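We both want to read discrete structure tokens more fluently, so let's practise on a single case. Would you supply a protein for us yourself, any chain you care to pick? Would you write everything just below, so we can both look at the same thing?
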Amino acid sequence: MSESETPPMLGSPEMEAQAHALVDMVIENARQRLVEEEKEKEAEHQAQEAVMGTQKYGYYDYLMLEDKEEDYAVKNITWPRAEEFNIKVGDEKINEFIKTWDYEGSWLYCIDFLQEEDHEYDKRYRYRVRWSIPTRRKPIPRATACVYFTIEVSKIKPKHFPVQVYYVFETNKLVHRPGQSRFREKWLKDIIESKIIAMETRKVKRPPCSGHTFIMAEAFPGPSEESFRYDLLFLSSDEDKLWTEENLVRPLDERGFATCLPHRDFTPGMPKLNLLHDALKDSLRTVLVISPEFLEDWKFKQALDPTFIDEGKLIPLIYKKCKALPEALSKVVHLEYSEQVDPCLLLDRIARAVEHTVGKKCE
């Protein structure tokens, strides 16, 4: 990579594509090597088996560095045959395999199916496993660590043959195979630590709600448009404003979004109502952190403008249970916070809502 090129951001689609490309390279190189081996003489093939140990693990060992320890039994599971495989089975088997790893109980993970790819000799199913350590103080963690799984279902092998499985840890170029390398919790911790360090070195300056020009730092080429000062405005009750800042606003700030939070960004001495109206108009989307207290708050009543609802600018997030939502909001798709839901999903859905809005305006 030349000095002028910018490396892909951690957790970005580019990083995900690199992980998939690494697995594809291993599969294609392994298949090419198999074709070449079939053309060799039997004596040469047997000599190669003795040197490389292919009788134990197969031809993939030529291409991947394996982490084997004589004193540690690497655990594995029984993977499905090609004829048994489907997307749901893949999800279940990845979950079963992860349970063989040794890690602290404070880790949480979720498995997402990404896509199915049809190739000449096989189909490849891509999954992502996102890891995080939420706490009571920070139920929405600052960063996650991703592991990308690829399950290869051959079109040319007999249907009773098992599927082939590969996985890559985010930021790492080593392609792993189940049963051939020992999982280390430190790998996940290193990924998260490196992300947090990157966030700290790429802080975005926050604009005040007073009409000053805002320019986002080039390190975070975020989704803001010139016609809007903010990507997201967050409104909540006074009781919930610190939770909102700590668990929603700051993580999205660190992702590069331009956010506005009244108690943090409104200019002292200016009329609150005028500042709120300006912020509502100057924000792509407004997140309403719903609680019984917020439903009685003056900010909520101002935000509940039919124009904003019709334009799809409001994102209701149910933080605390309420007896009933106002009829106008009951027709809007909302998010819901709970301790059972992966908190990173909330951030991802809010981020996608902004990106979707920008995409529509650019069409």
User: Anything to note?
Assistant: The chain has two domains: 13-197, 202-362. Residues 1-7, 52-69, 203-226, 358-363 have pLDDT under 50 and may be disordered. Residues 202-362 form a domain with the Rossmann fold fold (CATH 3.40.50.10140).
